[in-house]
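Intended use. Records like the one below are meant for learning the mapping from a protein sequence to its folded structure. Do not use them to infer anything beyond what is encoded.
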Amino acid sequence: MPHKRNKPITKPVVSSLPVIPVHELIINAEYIRELNTKVFNTPKVFLNVSSNANITLAVNVNAKQLEKGQSQFEIVVIANCVSQKTVEQNKEPIPIFEINLQYGAVVTLPTLKASNVEDLLMVEAPKLLFPEIRNIILNLTRISNLPSVLIQPIDFTQLWKDKKTSLTKENQN
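Structure written out for the chain above:
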């Protein structure tokens, strides 16, 4: 009896993500706006560096138009990475390190369409900046002889939705 083959899929797969053409967002420059690193309890912390430390990451995105009526904006992704370890239960965790990074970019939107400007600035631009942010934090922890931090991809769409909801609630109060 011959082996039966599955039919190839001939229908295109439809993505639920919006397609935003690349020409609608131009990155003119990327830069570290601010970078602070604190390593606590040195040099003792290096005698007992733990790879099972608790690492938290808080991320925020800000955008501002450089000049009114112009199509250039500054995007700043703020990342705060904190590492702590718990020595004993029911005791305060001991801080190991804290990294505060503000990574910025100047972007140009050749066409200022009101329908997608917010998405371009608050979602798409940070997605393009994210790989460099991840590399900066990873390399900084590595060269500081700290447990390496490899940041997983961030859902900037959800981050923007949460921020809009929070801003709406603040305006209602």
